[in-house]
Write a structure and sequence with these properties.
It is built from one helix and ten strands, in the order αββββββββββ. By secondary structure, the chain is mainly beta. The chain has one domain: SO1590-like (AOC barrel-like). The longest helix has 23 residues. The two termini are 41 Å apart.
Length: 169
Amino acid sequence: MRRTLVLLVGMAFLVVSAAPAAAAGKPMPVTGSETFFLTPTCDPGPPINLGPSFSPACKQAGPNTTITVSNPGSRTGTFEGDQHFEGTITVFSNLDFVFRGTLTFTGSVEGCGEGTVVFFNEGYGNFATGLERNVQHIVPGKGTLSVKGKLQLVGTSMNTNDIFGTYHC
């Protein structure tokens, strides 16, 4: 009887300790696209002129210009819903740029449910030749959905990116 009880307790421990690993799931591919609307706080001037509605001066550091941006947008595909990016873009004299900030997604994630997912977003490119790198890392514990993953975005037009990568709930 004692031996049976010890065996049952041991088996129960194995089942319970294995449950979280099964719940995490294996990484799944992300598909979809995003559309965004660039809303800078200032116009850096030539050669990037953003228009007269952005009259405040950008931050200058030698030949470099830093622009604070707030980009609303939407996503379709694995991540279906709205997004909002808050961050900075630093533009260099040769029109290269780097950006970084936080992107908050609100909507549904296939297989994970509905809620928010927060990403650290960074990348670089050139205003003349386009986006070269755009990576989004999910920040654990910041959104209401328990999603993990890393996304890579590839520009398909001026304000649209295709989304690739992996995620799991």
